[in-house]
Amino acid sequence: MVRMDSIWNENVKLPHFKKLEGDAATDVLIIGGGMAGILCAYFLQQEHIKYMLVEKGRICNGITRNTTAKITAQHGLIYHRLLKSLGTEKARMYLDANQKAIHRYARLCKKADCDFERKTAYVYSKDNRRKLEEEADALSQLGFQVQITDTDKLPFQTAGAIGFADQAQFHPLKFISKIAQGLHIYENTFVKELAKGAAMTECGKITFQKMIIATHFPIDNKHGLYPLKMYQDRSYVIALENAPQIDGMYIDEAQNGLSFRNYKDFLFIGGGSHRTGKKGKNWEELRNCARLYYPNMEEKYCWATQDCMTLDGIPYIGPYSRSMPECYVAAGFNKWGMTSSMVSAAILTDLLLERENPFAPVFHPSRNMIKPQLFINSFEAVSNLLTISAKRCPHMGCALRWNKAEHSWDCPCHGSRFDRFGKLLDNPSNGDIM
Ligand SMILES: Cc1cc2nc3c(=O)[nH]c(=O)nc-3n(C[C@H](O)[C@H](O)[C@H](O)COP(=O)(O)OP(=O)(O)OC[C@H]3O[C@@H](n4cnc5c(N)ncnc54)[C@H](O)[C@@H]3O)c2cc1C
């Protein structure tokens, strides 16, 4: 029988935290108990800063429990593009920030029994060796030497792959269950509204000096233009049992390609990506691949999730907006939220302590927005606002689309999702369909 749930939810006991009742005051309020929020809390605790983290459900209620948990600085063929758009210095900062994040995980994972394993991360191309060569050249200009190698562990022919040695993979919830112990967290504490210096929950008001919004999609629409700067993209995963070891983590450079990694004797196949609310091939594409190349392996788990995609493929980490100086954000991880969460925790801790962080300028959320994706996001917003439909998203009023594969109402504008009864599944909406 296939279990329709992420493999990480099996046999993991996350620590419980009580609900916040009544009013409270803190120096730093963190909203959101996923990988980003919890790592921020962990770093602030190390620095003896007075903070509290509030999570609307249980911790790791959101995307983090559905990740494939590869810890890598190799975010597709990004470096050729970064070199062109940002120049050498900033492209190298992006690489260094993410490489440093891997080292930080390695150190923390010594204390946490979380199946942390060093692996090579490969990005392969089925038919475009030229793109791989350009990426290898770009990396060489950044002082990071890579080879283009064969991919004989994959079940199909490719034009080659670029390998980043000494990257890693782990069990994200086992990691969190250790790291979160002793942190100042409140669960089942939903922030309904933000005001200057205060956050309103269902049970009271939290006053703060500074705030970090780590809610996956930022919950404040009034500042920072996040609904224009981000959309959500959905992907699917299946886990095959008794699968061959592929000795690395693989991802296709093509936007709609597949990804592969092992966990114990499972093989995850990921892919089927599409903008949330649009039609996609969902698990079908992954099952076709499994039938073709792994016909004797049994599918044990399947799940789907989504992540926030930014205009330029770089996360938004830093001040939320010029008009909200007391507020910081960690969002837009472009499906690379393991290292990006660690980068967020390091940068935001430094910013809160008024220390210089060398990587902060690359991730600054108020950078130039004039990118082709801005026009696509704007077009989606306008056309879905004008579409006639009885089901509308409470976030900004866009027409919702029925997702046949997952039996949900999905918003093509910003990616909110609701079950068939209208109950909220994924933000940015902060309420059910009325
Ligand atoms: C299919 C897929 C595979 C992926 N695989 C990888 C991978 O291999 N490697 C990698 O690096 N990245 C991967 N990612 C990306 C990564 O999983 C995410 O970027 C990361 O988990 C996001 O973490 P987060 O803390 O920002 O969000 P979340 O985990 O969603 O946490 C946000 C939390 O905020 C809470 N919240 C929201 N609103 C409120 C509110 N108003 N009040 C209180 N709490 C609130 C939510 O309940 C939630 O728990 C993948 C993404 C996808 C879609």
Secondary-structure map:
Layout (H helix, E strand, L loop, with lengths): L23 E8 L3 H12 L4 E4 L15 E2 L6 H9 L1 H22 L7 E9 L3 H13 L6 E2 L10 E10 L2 H8 L5 E2 L4 E5 L2 E4 L3 E9 L12 H4 E12 L7 E4 L6 E5 L2 E10 L6 H12 L4 E13 L5 E4 L7 E5 L5 H16 L7 H4 L8 H15 L14 E3 L4 E3 L6 E3 L4 E3 L8
Parallel strand pairs: 1-2, 1-10, 2-7, 4-12, 10-17
Antiparallel strand pairs: 3-6, 4-6, 5-6, 8-9, 9-10, 11-14, 11-15, 12-13, 13-14, 16-17, 18-19, 19-20, 20-21
Helix pairs in contact: 1-8, 2-3, 2-4, 3-8
Bound molecules: flavin-adenine dinucleotide.
Protein architecture, described:
This protein is an alpha+beta fold. It has a domain at 372-426: Rieske [2Fe-2S] iron-sulphur domain (Rieske Iron-sulfur Protein, 3-layer Sandwich), CATH 2.102.10. Helix content is 26%, strand content 28%. Strands 3, 4, 5, 6, 11, 12, 13, 14 and 15 form a nine-stranded mixed sheet that branches. It starts with 23 loop residues before the first strand and ends in an 8-residue tail after the last strand. The mean pLDDT is 96. Bound molecules: flavin-adenine dinucleotide. Residues 31-37, 54-57, 61-64, 67-70, 190-191, 214-216, 219, 235, 237, 270, 305-307, 333, 335-339, 341, 427, 430 line the site of flavin-adenine dinucleotide (FAD).
